[in-house]
Design a protein that fits this description.
The complex is a heterodimer of chains A (278) and B (295). Chain A has 278 residues and is mainly alpha-helical. Chain A is 73% helix and 0% strand. Chain A is built from 14 helices and no strands. In chain B, helix 5 (84-93) runs parallel beside helix 9 and helix 11 packs antiparallel against helix 14 (263-288). Classes of the chains: A mainly alpha (278), B mainly alpha (295).
């Protein structure tokens, strides 16, 4: 029993150490967001928090400056993320379900293509994709950011794995009730896929909210940028605008963490049930 | 809805149609174009010259080699840490003891929700040269001297890998937890009856049971490692890092294509990355026999 307790203490110690590693940056970002930019340049991030230098001025600045573009970026990020998530969930669940429940000619070949898209980073092809966006008049627009990733391959993979565990008797029952194949999907199966939707909401929204490379390529107009790209424009070789950068960074983290906390249960459950079959 | 689309035979194809359309437009076509462009010198939309293998020959330069080196080293180190460490932590979180697993899971996962640009701001400050900066101050507590972290290659690699571990630890833990929960508890019970100790159970039950998840984690880590750009970009603020100490292959492609406007050359660099990735995936498939198509 003693050994049992000792091992428990050791485990908690190890786990806490890594939790500290995970959470420390947030503590310092939060603290720094209350300090004037000059202070950041002078003393950076140190163990001493210098509470006496705290001020709300930079938050006031973020909320008052019209030309900062900050809220435009924020609104863009929210909009792109919502559109990407809704579109992505709709399309990937549809495709993943089709691959998961039906046995049809070409199924394996299509699944191999899904794996191929999963394995080849889009960055390899960003040059022609960039030209294609210009040709399709999607350059510097929301759909230019969103469409290439709408059928997100990892989400297709996930929905496929999850759907192959659905009770197939329900399909026959639905057919007897006169539902079409799509009716079965929309009316019968979607409710059963709910945990998978929770998990993929996080995966897709997170990817879109945090995307860097592709939005940087496809967006030009500073009024169309997203939060990460906008923030990175505040980091320049000529000196960084920390007055906006630090509170901006803190505000950028908040919504996605809220989504996570609201979906946390279904996320962990979803990943567990969806499982990785290898 | 047309009658034909309702047929049970046709329906599966309707379901997968969005993928096929997206695959054709956003994967196949750009892939073919990349191959084509890699043989061209492109100075404008209508000023395109076929130059054969010239772009590939030009890839033999020290900057590109350095980018390959950084990419491979980075991938190696991230896998060396991000496969065993999360497995260990997940095993602890999965133990029957009450240790507040819910809190820890959330704590490890939250970095993943944070934009790498935001994380980069913290990491740049924490790893700055000044002796009072966070990491140097902690090093001093243990008697280590101040290090100029982002000025030479090995310390830069340490910072990039640390940033990557910070971002992905929680995700891999969730994968491993899912894998661990698929292992039947009866196996552990019967092993206990046979007198196996904790280590024995880990080696003979947990490890074989977790193998598919392990393969999956290694696969996505290879992908993430070779596609890496954001960690380096977040730390240096440019695609081209001083002295190439942190420039990756994707960073090189981005720099060539979108900063120096050498589209054809960038495409050739992209092809090299593609070939490298396919090779590694092939080796992995042979080695692990991963992604069998059976259900």
């Amino acid at each position: 029993m003693k050994a049992f307790r000792a091992s428990r203490a050791a485990m908690i110690a190890v786990l806490s150490l890594f939790a500290l590693f995970s959470l420390t940056p947030f503590y310092f970002l939060l603290i720094s967001s209350f300090k004037p930019g000059v202070e950041m340049i002078r003393s950076g991030i140190s163990l001493n928090p210098h509470f006496e230098k705290f001020t709300l001025n930079m938050y006031k600045l973020v909320f008052s400056l019209d030309e900062s573009n900050f809220f435009i970026w924020y609104k863009n990020s929210l909009l792109y993320t919502c559109v990407q998530t809704v579109l992505g969930l709709g399309l990937t669940s549809f495709v993943g379900y089709g691959l998961g429940v039906y046995k049809f000619k070409g199924r394996n070949a299509i699944f191999v293509l899904v794996l191929l898209v999963m394995m080849v980073p889009l960055e390899i092809m960003m040059i022609p994709l960039y030209k294609e966006m210009i040709a399709l008049r999607l350059f510097d627009s929301m759909f230019g950011v969103v469409l290439p990733f709408a059928v997100f391959p990892s989400a297709v993979f996930f929905f496929r794995q999850y759907s192959s565990g659905l009770p197939l008797e329900l399909m026959d029952a639905g057919r007897i009730d006169g539902l079409t194949e799509y009716g079965i999907f929309f009316r019968v199966m979607i409710p059963l896929l709910k945990p998978a939707f929770g998990a993929m909401t996080i995966l897709i929204s997170m990817n879109c909210w945090n995307a860097i490379v592709w939005p940087m390529v496809v967006l030009r107009n500073s009024k169309k940028l997203t939060i990460p790209i906008g923030l990175s424009t505040l980091i320049t070789p000529y000196g960084n605008n920390y007055d906006l950068l630090m509170p901006g960074a803190v505000l950028a983290i908040v919504p996605i963490i809220l989504i996570f906390i609201l979906n946390q249960r279904s996320f962990i459950e979803g990943l567990t049930t969806g499982g990785v079959k290898g | 809805m047309p009658r034909i689309l309702r047929s049970q035979k046709i329906a599966p194809y309707v379901f997968v149609a969005p993928f096929l359309v997206s695959f054709a437009i956003f994967f196949l076509y750009p892939l073919i174009s990349t191959v084509q462009m890699s043989f061209q010198d492109i100075s404008g939309f209508n000023d395109v010259k076929f130059i054969g293998l010239q772009n590939y020959a030009n890839l033999a330069n020290s900057r590109f080699f350095s980018a390959i080196r950084v990419t491979i080293l980075y991938t190696f180190w991230t896998i060396a840490i991000l496969a065993p460490l999360p497995l260990l932590l997940a095993t602890m979180l999965n133990s029957k003891q009450r240790i507040g697993a819910g809190f820890f899971k959330a704590a490890y996962f939250i970095p993943q929700l944070t934009s790498v640009i935001v994380a980069g701001i913290f990491f740049r400050f924490a790893f700055s040269d000044s002796p009072t900066a966070l990491v140097n101050a902690i090093a001093k507590l243990f008697g280590g001297g101040p290090v100029s972290w982002l000025k030479s290659s090995t310390p830069t690699m340490v910072v990039m890998v640390t940033l990557c571990v910070w971002r992905w630890l929680g995700v891999n833990i969730v994968y491993f937890l899912a894998g661990l929960q698929n292992i039947s508890p009866e196996l552990y019970e019967s092993a206990s009856i046979d007198g196996a100790n904790t280590l024995g159970k880990f080696l003979y039950i947990t490890l074989p049971g977790i193998k598919p998840t392990f393969i999956y984690v290694v696969t996505i880590s290879v992908y993430g490692g070779f596609a890496m750009f954001s960690e380096s970009y977040a730390l240096f603020g440019t695609a081209r890092t001083p002295g190439e100490i942190g420039s990756t292959m994707v960073g090189y492609i981005y720099q060539q294509a979108f900063v120096e406007a050498r589209l054809g050359f960038g495409a050739a660099a992209g092809m090299m990355l593609l070939v490298l990735m396919l090779l590694i995936n092939l080796v992995q498939l042979k080695f692990f026999g991963a992604f069998r198509l059976e259900d």
